Amino acid sequence: MTTTDLTTLSGLDLMRWVQSERPADIPSIGRLLGMRFDEVDPGRVVVSLDTRPDFANPLGTVHGGIAATLLDSAMGCAVHTTLPAGVGYTTLELKVNYIRAARTDGQTLIAEGTVLHAGRRTATAEGKVLDEQGKLLAHATTTCMILHADG
């Protein structure tokens, strides 16, 4: 079990800790899907994963929910990098546009999330998912609600 008190870390420091430590003892969607935090900067996060047959939809390509989860994670974590310690967020709205299908054969999918607006009550971000050749697979926008401990 981790000994780091996560509540004392700013959002940026928390995301950098996750990037460097890859904590195996903390259950998460990222661990479940095999996500990697490739880049963590203020207002910007890049995550990636390698597809696998478990991600297939009935047509045999990667289910759209995998791209949506990548986008929600990249954009949400980008928002998180703008927040002070003790302040959280949750996704209020997620709009995804799918451009092309992904294969289930170990193809690397790369999602970049970038903050457009970080306010006291809401934040917005945009994101895109690319394959390893740089082809656009999906793009999205999100609105996140900022959760302050004092309400």
From TrEMBL:
Keyword Hydrolase on entry: yes
Top-level taxon in the UniProt lineage: Bacteria
Keywords of the record: Hydrolase
Listed EC numbers: 3.1.2.-
Enzyme class: hydrolase
Thioesterase domain ranges (all copies): 60-137
Record-level Gene Ontology MF annotations: hydrolase activity
Pfam families the record matches: 4HBT
InterPro entries: HotDog_dom_sf, PAAI_dom, Thioestr_dom
UniProt protein name: PaaI family thioesterase
Species, as recorded: Streptomyces asiaticus subsp. ignotus
